[in-house]
Amino acid sequence: MDGSAANHVLRLPELLEVILLSLSQKDILLSQRVSRSFRHTVQGSVNLQRALFFEPDWKLEGRVSFNAYRANLTPGKKPENNRLLLRAFPGCYPTVTLVIVNDSPTPNEMDIGRRGSEHWSWDVCISFPADTIPTCSQAALYPEASWRRMYLSQPPCQNLHLVRRWQRCALPAIMREHGITMGDFFEEAVSAKLKELWHHSYISSDRDWHFEGNIKCSSLEE
Predict the structure, then answer these.
(1) Are 126 and 95 in contact (CB under 8 A)?
(2) What range does the domain containing 128 cover?
(3) Residues 116 and 43 in one domain
(4) Do 151 and 82 touch, CB atoms closer than 8 A?
(5) Distances (CA, A) of 52 to 40, 94, 124, 178, 181
(6) How does residue 7 score in pLDDT terms, banded at 50, 70 and 90?
(7) What is the DSSP-derived secondary structure letter of residue 151?
(8) Contacts of 91 (CB under 8 A, 6+ apart)
């Protein structure tokens, strides 16, 4: 492809979007420095904004009840972990873990002595030392830093609970209906530290605050 043909292709937002979607999250973010058309394409594309964790993607496979006695059920697709946050927050970044959640029994289930149903869930986990606040690399400190708008995971988690010794606080420490961004987490952590909002009994033996938040997913029949 000669130079003029390549330039023509890269001026078409639809084709440029397809090309950029094949890149890593970091490369998509940096591509906005190439030209004004690249930046406009990235900022105007919902798919690229989702790839950058700036826009939520709530699409999950249909949820079905989990039955612990059926061996042919497997969890749905794992949510994406925002690995780019690892570069900005080397000691405090989100991970995603598979768990089985026990729901509270319904009144009918309680009447017949039956336990609540179970479902697969992906847990978003994040922690930082209780003696300080989350710290990021020097290059990511400026107020307009991209990480502030990035969701912890895709799809985002909406609630984060303090956890200690497998005991999860009943009320969420951080809650956002639209999904929790790293900026939300950072600001809540700073505020809680200054105002002593989180109970010290949830500081773990390693002197860390630990948080978990569920992202419900489906069980798939094989």
Answers:
(1) yes
(2) 73-221
(3) no
(4) yes
(5) 14, 15, 18, 16, 12
(6) low
(7) B
(8) 128, 129, 135
pLDDT tens-digit readout, 121-170: 788 999 988 888 787 776 667 778 899 999 999 999 999 999 987 788 88
Mean local confidence (pLDDT), 98-123: 74
Residues 135 and 31 in one domain: no
Closest to 217 measured CA to CA, from 59, 85, 72: 59
Tell me, yes or no, whether 205 lies in a domain: yes
pLDDT in tens, 201-211: 888 888 899 99
Q: Of 81, 64, 75, which is closest to residue 98 (Cα–Cα)?
A: 75
Say how many C-beta atoms besides its own lie within 10 A of residue 45's C-beta: 20
Q: Residues for the chain: how many in total?
A: 222
Cα–Cα distances in angstroms (integers) from residue 164 to residues 81, 104, 211, in the given order: 22, 21, 9
- Sign, CA torsion 5/10/14/18: positive
Same domain, 17 and 78: no
Same domain, residue pair 43 and 87: no
- Comparing C-alpha atoms, which of 61, 37, 29 is closest to residue 150? 29
C-alpha–C-alpha distance, residues 92 and 134, integer Å: 7
Instruction: Tell me the chain's radius of gyration from C-alpha atoms.
Output: 21
140 phi/psi in degrees, rounded to 5? -105, 15
